[in-house]
Amino acid sequence: MRSAVDDLISPHPLGERMPAVYTDDDFTQRFTQALDEVVAPVFTVLDCFAAYLDPRLAPADFVDWLAGWVALDLDESWTSAQRRELVARAVRLHRFRGTRRGLAEHVWLLTGGRVDIADSGGIAVSQRPHGPIPGSSPAHVLIRIRVPNPAAVDSVRITAAVRRMVPAHVATTIEVTT
What we know:
Helices cover 44% and strands 11% of the residues. By secondary structure, the protein is α+β, with helices and mostly antiparallel strands. The chain has a three-stranded mixed sheet with strand order 1-2-3, covered by helices on one side.
């Protein structure tokens, strides 16, 4: 729950909702004002609940919690804008997880550059058993990222993110160029 907001006024003061006999009672009014300070953050959250569910509008600390809802691990070194955009697109990223398209979109969200991916994998269908195995061995992925300023891309962070997206047995090469 959100709390610790200075001078937050309750949109529904309890003292005004008391029976008429209590509206002139000083103790009752002071007591309900104290309760208003406790209840005001609850009303604020409930009144703005739709905004809390939109990662582009939610408070920064709530975005991390939303990431957990959509099974997304966020790196603390990513900017707030990157974190918000990743959470907003998490369902789409999960839909294409494990594909070239999903990997390219994820890397694009992290770098903003043009992403080209070449992999050794493949798929084939054979009508008879013991047909040729598609792709080449060992498995590898080459990711080329084209950005205006390659020095601005944190290659360690990008490598860690990519390694979480590709299978463990697949060798990964990342090239950042202009």
